[in-house]
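Design a sequence for this backbone.
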């Protein structure tokens, strides 16, 4: 598991990529490449989370005050990858069916020649 003791709330990633419980995922059993992969995983998670945008400052002369913790803006590629992942999870059954049907049609068409 990832060491989350030294992370503050503002820098905690929303999704930690590659955080699996299986043999060989621990840095101590991964050999010399373990810490390198941990750093890469942290860089990817930080990139995927995006840039922190603090809340706008309140107008001192206004009676209305907004309390907001701010938000994260994901890069366009991270948003695209997230949408593709959501699409796959929602529609994987018919995607596999279409790919198999097209593959069989191409195979049958090339076998008949």
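Sequence:
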């Amino acid at each position: 598991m990832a060491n989350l003791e030294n992370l503050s709330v503002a820098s905690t990633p929303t999704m930690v990529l590659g955080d699996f419980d299986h043999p060989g995922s621990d840095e101590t059993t991964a050999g010399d490449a373990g810490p390198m992969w941990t750093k890469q995983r942290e860089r990817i998670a930080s990139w995927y989370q995006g840039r922190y945008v603090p809340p706008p400052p309140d107008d001192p002369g206004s009676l209305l005050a907004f309390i907001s913790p701010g938000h994260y803006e994901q890069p366009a590629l991270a948003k695209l990858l997230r949408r593709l992942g959501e699409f796959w999870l929602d529609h994987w059954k018919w995607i596999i069916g279409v790919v198999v049907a097209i593959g069989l049609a191409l195979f049958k068409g090339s076998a008949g020649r």
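DSSP finds two helices and two strands in the chain.
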